[in-house]
Structures are given as structure tokens and as C-alpha cells.
Design a protein that fits this description.
Elements: H1 2-11, H2 14-30, H3 41-53, E1 59-65, H4 71-87, E2 91-96, H5 100-111, H6 113-116, E3 125-130, H7 134-143, E4 175-180, H8 184-197, E5 201-205, H9 210-218, E6 224-227, H10 228-239, H11 244-282
Parallel strand pairs: 1-2, 1-4, 2-3, 4-5, 5-6
Helix pairs in contact: 1-11, 2-11, 4-5, 4-10, 7-8, 10-11
Length: about 280
């Protein structure tokens, strides 16, 4: 009887329960477990498109258009896609039509340092930085990059970068990826890159805005869409680089399992105490 009461008191300790829950969230993020997850058809279709259509030496344009608060959902997708593209031998041009994209790119590159370690800046990839002008800037870049800007984010002249001698307009790119926490920029690229030039677009969106962007995908104005942290985790599995995406899925799984365990044990203790009290009262 005393052991049941002591167990009940332990379970009623909020501090203990919260501490266990905190550990169940933090530990898998620091040390990913890699709990198996099912790969959705949508994520696999994007992966297969890149596998089948992009060849070594191809060119990909990536719009980094999200603030730091959205990193948890979008950065895993960007890192996994970058690994896939580099593994395929693609050359990448990064750009940002938003000022906060510069900070997002800096953090992304720091967290994916292993992917850039053997890549030469200016030849394998470049980053334009923030380009002001919104949709007008997007339209100008599609027509001519060197006619829109003259230097990159680090002050290098575009004419001095080997990669920029290979690309200058929308039709020079084999794929255009938009990684965004807002809906407006997706429409920019549909109107200014896809409709007039036929550029193939790939969307990477927050879960909360995906329904607003879905009509573009349904209308075949984009080859596909990766949605939120779950898609990032799935893509990490496909490319063989486990990171924040799969770690976050691990944290969700372990915390949910712990909560279910709390509920189960709590019910066992409750009914054990109730049955014991009934037996004691009947004597």
C-alpha cells in the first residue's frame, strides 16, 4: 500500500514530469535516434524528379526567402536539397528577395559546412545576397541577372565569377527552388519565371501556408512541393544525411511516447488506489 502511495506521489510531481518531458525533447535533438519514418509520395516524387532530370553540370537557382523563426521547418529541406544537388554535380545560384534571407543563408551555410567544404565559391555556387524590388526584381533577374546586379553578396563582380559566365537568365536554369515562409514570392516566380520562360519550379513551404500554394502545384506550374519539417526529415533519409529534420521527428516521437506512458501509468495507479479504497471500505 505504501509503495502504491509513494508511486502516486511521484507521478503527481509536476517538476519530475516536466523534466522528463524536457529531456525527451532535448536529447533526441542533440543526438538523433533515427526512428524510422515513412517517406511520403510527394517527397519521393521530388527526389525522383531531381534524380531523373538533373545531370552533372546542370544549373539550379535557389531563392532563400524565410526568416530565422522559420528555420526549424525550412532549413532541413534546404540542406537536404543542397546535398542532393551537389551529389548530382549541380551548380547552385542562391539569391534572396528579402533582407532576412541574408541571415537565413548565413545560418544555413554554417549548419551545412560539410556540404560546402569541397566546393569552390564562384565556380560551384554563388550567393547574390539581398536584391530589393520584390516582383519587379524577380522579373528583372529572369530576363538578365547581370543586367540586374553587378556584384554578389560579398562584393565580388559577377563578371569575375566563372559560374556567372554560364548563366544569366531564367532559361539557363534546369530547376528553380523557392524556399519561403511567405506566399507572395511563390506567385512572383510563377508569373515571372515559369509563365513567360517555362522555368521548372520547386516549392518548399511552411506547413501553415502550403494550402495557399497548393493551387500552383495542382495547375502544374510547379513540379512539386516539400512541406514543413516532416518533408525535411523524409528528404534527409533519402539523401543519407540525418539532421535537424529527423532529430525533430525523433523528439516528437519520444515526447508523444512519454506522454502516453504517463497516461497509462497514471490510470493504473488511479484504478489501483480506487479498488484498494473500495476493499478497505467494505471491511
Amino acid at each position: 500500500m505504501s509503495s502504491q502511495i509513494s508511486l502516486g506521489k511521484v507521478l503527481e510531481s509536476r517538476e519530475l514530469l516536466y523534466t522528463l518531458l524536457l529531456l525527451a525533447v532535448i536529447l533526441p535533438i542533440l543526438h538523433p535516434i533515427g526512428i524510422p519514418i515513412e517517406i511520403s509520395a510527394r517527397t519521393r516524387d521530388v527526389y525522383n524528379y531531381i534524380e531523373q532530370n538533373l545531370k552533372p553540370g546542370c544549373h539550379v537557382f535557389v531563392e532563400v526567402y524565410y526568416e530565422v523563426a522559420a528555420r526549424g521547418e525550412l532549413e532541413p529541406n534546404l540542406i537536404a536539397l543542397t546535398k542532393h544537388l551537389f551529389d548530382k554535380g549541380c551548380k547552385i545560384v542562391y539569391s534572396s528577395l528579402s533582407a532576412f534571407g541574408v541571415v537565413a543563408f548565413s545560418l544555413f551555410k554554417a549548419n551545412a559546412a560539410d556540404l560546402f567544404a569541397n566546393k569552390e565559391y564562384g565556380r560551384d555556387y554563388v550567393y547574390f545576397g539581398y536584391i530589393a524590388g520584390g516582383e519587379a526584381a524577380s522579373a528583372s533577374l529572369a530576363k538578365s541577372i547581370k543586367g540586374t546586379i553587378s556584384v554578389d553578396n560579398y562584393g565580388n563582380r559577377l563578371e569575375d565569377l566563372p559560374l556567372m559566365k554560364e548563366v544569366d537568365k531564367a532559361t539557363d536554369f534546369d530547376l528553380v527552388i523557392i524556399v519561403s515562409s511567405g506566399t507572395d514570392v511563390f506567385a512572383y516566380y510563377v508569373r515571372q519565371w515559369h509563365t513567360p520562360y517555362g522555368a521548372p519550379l520547386l516549392f518548399v513551404a511552411l506547413s501553415v501556408i502550403a494550402p495557399s500554394v497548393e493551387p500552383f502545384v495542382g495547375a502544374k506550374q510547379a513540379i512539386g512541393m516539400l512541406v514543413g519539417q516532416r518533408a525535411g526529415a523524409e528528404y534527409e533519409v533519402l539523401v543519407g544525411r540525418l539532421g535537424l529534420g529527423i532529430a525533430s521527428m525523433d523528439a516528437q516521437s519520444t515526447s508523444h511516447m512519454l506522454i502516453l506512458a504517463f497516461i497509462a501509468v497514471g490510470n493504473v495507479v488511479y484504478w489501483t488506489k480506487r479498488l484498494s479504497s473500495k476493499r478497505g471500505g467494505s471491511r
